[in-house]
């Protein structure tokens, strides 16, 4: 376990590939399967039910990828949440008309934003969101970058809800089984690096505190996931 005592960040291959690269397309398909195996959608849904008791009007997803994870989550929540305005932000434009139509059928309105999260957070205007959600995203940044990001996001919404990789020996060992699901070389490399860059204990809480936020919950969720919920600068006005 000593090798995992500290976070270790190594660039992930997928981040350097073009959106239409065949290896990137295959890796995103792998990620959809991995999200399912990690029970990400039910874990995130349980966080929303606990911390967002009233139906939200506006949600921001950062690092949205191809949108399939959020669509799974929306299908779980659409029975209780109607007419949600969902903004998906990613540095690569992966929002398709088909994805927008899928959200339309749930009664949700989708807007895609293609931008670097720091550039967007520093320059965007408009009213605050009711919640910000991230999935397998925060582990891409070092601690100093996360404090900066949290300082910017804390003014955008009263809540941030995150599901991230758990940095643990069992989770790392499990990445060696990915060939069993047909995962390609990109996924196999990036999955192991994601675990090494993941979180445990109160690491995200400490960073959120450093950004003057209020941590609400941080814990392990199952064998592979780590969850965090923090209250932002607008939390008191809800």
> What's the number of domains?
1
The CATH superfamily appears as: Vaccinia Virus protein VP39
First-residue to last-residue Cα separation: 42 Å
Q: What's the CATH architecture?
A: 3-Layer(aba) Sandwich
The pLDDT mean sits at 93
Low-confidence stretches: none
Strand line-up of the largest beta sheet: 3-2-1-4-5-7-6
Oligomeric status: single chain
What sort of overall outline do the alpha carbons produce when their principal axes are compared? globular
Biggest sheet: strands, sense, closure?
Answer: 7 strands, mixed
- According to CATH, the fold-level topology is Rossmann fold
Strand content: 15-25%
List keywords for this structure.
single chain; 9 helices; 238 residues; 7 strands; globular; Rossmann fold; alpha/beta; 7-stranded mixed beta sheet
Write the layout of secondary structure elements.
Elements: H1 22-37, H2 40-51, E1 58-62, H3 68-77, E2 85-90, H4 97-105, E3 109-114, H5 117-123, E4 131-135, H6 143-153, E5 159-165, H7 169-174, H8 185-196, H9 203-210, E6 214-221, E7 225-231
Parallel strand pairs: 1-2, 1-4, 2-3, 4-5
Antiparallel strand pairs: 5-7, 6-7
Helix pairs in contact: 2-3
Describe the structure.
This protein is of the alpha/beta class and 238 residues long. It has a single domain, classed as Rossmann fold. The protein is 38% helix and 18% strand. It is built from 9 helices and 7 strands, in the order ααβαβαβαβαβαααββ. Strands 3-2-1-4-5-7-6 form a 7-stranded mixed beta sheet, with helices on both faces. Helix 2 crosses helix 3. The chain is globular and about 40 Å long.
């Amino acid at each position: 376990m000593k090798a995992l005592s500290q976070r270790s960040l190594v660039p992930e291959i997928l981040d350097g590939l073009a959106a239409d690269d065949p290896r990137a397309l295959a890796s995103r398909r792998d990620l959809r399967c991995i999200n399912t195996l990690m029970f990400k959608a039910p874990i995130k849904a349980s966080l929303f039910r606990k911390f967002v008791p009233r139906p939200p009007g506006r949600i921001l997803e950062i690092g949205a990828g191809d949108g399939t994870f959020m669509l799974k989550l929306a299908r779980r929540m659409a029975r209780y949440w109607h007419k949600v305005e969902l903004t998906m932000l990613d540095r690569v434009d992966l929002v398709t008309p088909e994805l927008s139509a899928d959200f339309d059928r749930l009664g949700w309105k989708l807007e895609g934003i293609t931008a670097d999260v720091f550039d967007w957070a520093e320059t965007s205007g408009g009213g605050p969101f009711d919640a910000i959600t991230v999935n397998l995203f925060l582990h891409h940044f070092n601690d100093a970058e996360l404090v900066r990001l949290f300082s910017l996001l804390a003014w955008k919404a009263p809540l941030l809800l995150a599901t991230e990789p758990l940095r643990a020996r069992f989770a790392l060992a499990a990445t060696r089984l990915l060939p069993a699901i047909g995962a390609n070389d990109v996924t196999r490399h990036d999955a192991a690096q994601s675990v090494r860059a993941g979180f445990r204990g109160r690491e995200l809480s400490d960073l959120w505190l450093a950004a003057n936020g209020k941590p609400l919950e941080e814990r392990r969720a199952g064998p592979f996931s780590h969850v965090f919920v923090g209250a932002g600068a607008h939390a008191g006005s809800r």
